[in-house]
Design brief:
The protein folds into two domains: 111 residues, Rossmann fold, CATH 3.40.50; 182 residues, Dihydrodipicolinate Reductase, domain 2 (2-Layer Sandwich), CATH 3.30.360.10. Helix 2 links the parallel strand 2 and strand 3. It is built from 13 helices and 13 strands. The termini are far apart. Strands 12-11-7-10-9-8-13 form a seven-stranded mixed beta sheet. A six-stranded parallel beta sheet has the order 3-2-1-4-5-6, sandwiched between helices. The protein is of the alpha/beta class.
Length: 335
């Protein structure tokens, strides 16, 4: 299989290493708007290079991975769909979920498969939690708790264009809740603070720490915790509580928590410090799944429609924070 990769920044270079190691990938063609990034990857890995996305898509690739800047996602997806090339794209498809709907409709009309990057779907523990819910062994699910705590904020330049903590960070929790429960979110209430953090958060009207309550269609509730300042490490977890049993993903030795229970040594491992560390296996499974999508063996495991649904939750959370009130997903989706 011959694949293309557009975008060789932090996540793109990571994907290049993963893709060249996959047995299904016989050749990888890479490109980036920054020539030095292409040169660095070409010097380290057995890849072919292209001078532009257009040249890459015309080079006979069977599929393409899009890891370029967010503002380029929609244009590159449209180009891939127009060329009839299955695509994997990092989130978000577009900053405005309404604009992503048009991309989804185009891909459906052309019959081109598109997979969006939400790696927690491919984490073994998150998948096992989903199976536990689907099997009914937890009974009636009443509470979900999802956590994403970053050790430190991204650079200020990134924060200024990220769209805020709900669109950039919490979307992974929102997707995990939908994925594990199989339910849609109907209402959102969010709060947050920028107290004590970098002044850039207040300058851009964002927060560095947020709590969000999601009401699911069954009436179950999900509680989402996010922060940019978790000094002990990178913390990604999910709990599902039902009337018969409870399960947790991410409750392992490298969990960045320190117990205050006398005599307790768990967790005792070195805390995770980066998302590519915590979710390395999930990223590999995610891209391996994309090769199955390209080969036609499976449908997309995370569609544009999934990304759009998560985007509306993020919009509702953003409005809820600004207006200090519960916001329904229908309110922002149908506006």
């Amino acid at each position: 299989m011959r694949l293309g990769l557009i975008g060789l920044g932090r996540i793109g270079a990571f994907h290049a290493r993963t893709l060249t190691a996959l047995p299904e990938v016989e050749a990888l063609v890479v490109t980036d708007a920054v020539p030095a990034a292409v040169e660095a990857v070409a010097a380290a890995l057995p890849v072919e290079t292209a001078t532009s996305p257009e040249q890459l898509l015309a080079s006979g690739v069977d599929g393409v991975v899009i890891a370029a800047a967010t503002d380029a996602h929609a244009e590159l997806l449209v180009a891939a769909v127009a060329a009839g090339v299955p695509a994997f794209c990092e989130k978000p498809v577009t900053r405005d979920p309404a604009d992503a709907v048009a991309v989804d409709e185009l891909a459906r009309r052309r019959g081109v498969a598109v997979q969006i990057g939400y790696p927690r779907r491919f984490d073994a523990a998150f998948a096992a939690a989903r199976d536990a819910v689907a099997s009914g062994e937890l009974g009636s699910v009443h509470t979900v708790r999802s956590t994403t705590l970053d050790p430190a904020p991204p650079p200020a330049g990134y924060l200024r264009t990220s769209g805020g903590i709900f669109r950039d960070c919490a979307v992974h929790d929102f997707d995990a809740v939908r994925f594990v429960t199989g339910e849609e979110v109907v209402e959102v209430y969010a709060s947050g603070t920028a107290r004590g953090g970098d002044p850039v958060f207040a300058e851009i009207g964002d927060v560095h720490t947020a709590a969000t309550v999601l009401v699911l269609e069954s009436g179950a509730q999900a509680v989402i915790s996010n922060t940019r300042y978790n000094a002990r490490g990178y913390d990604v977890r999910l709990e599902v509580h039902g009337t018969r049993d409870s399960v947790a993903a991410g409750l392992e030795s490298r969990l960045p928590l320190r117990s205050t229970e006398p005599g307790t040594t768990f967790p005792g491992g070195t805390p995770h410090t980066f998302f590519m560390d915590r979710l390395a296996d999930a990223f590999r499974r995610e891209l391996a799944a994309f090769t199955d999508v390209v080969a036609g063996r499976i449908p997309s495991p995370c569609t544009i429609a999934d990304a759009v649904a998560v985007g509306w939750i993020a919009e509702a959370a953003t409005r809820s924070l600004a207006e200090h009130r519960p916001v329904t997903v229908a309110e922002v989706r149908d506006a």
